[in-house]
Specification:
two-stranded antiparallel ribbon; 2 helices; about 20% strand; alpha+beta; Transferase(Phosphotransferase), domain 1; about 80 residues
Length: about 80
């Protein structure tokens, strides 16, 4: 079964239901897609992994090829902030 890639992890899509113990849910799966390798440019640019963001520049050719690791990058950016 291919993994589901959320592709738009950002603070607005992380719901904290309780803090003791932490109970967190992820919302807004509108851009989510199942697949081992994806090529569509989407998501919020500030939280997007570099392998996708580099194709969002003007005059960039081709399309990105990425895995579910982009969600880990996005979550790391959210936690760092």
């Amino acid at each position: 079964t291919p993994p589901i890639v959320h592709r738009d992890i950002k603070p607005e899509n992380i719901l904290v239901l309780s803090r003791s113990p932490f109970h967190i849910k992820l919302s807004d799966f509108g851009l989510a897609k199942a697949g081992s390798y994806l090529e569509t440019r989407c998501g919020t640019l500030v939280y997007t992994a570099p392998e996708i963001a580099q194709y969002c520049r003007p005059n960039s050719a081709g399309s990105p090829r990425y895995t579910c690791a982009v969600d880990i990058w996005s979550l790391g950016v959210v936690v760092f902030q």
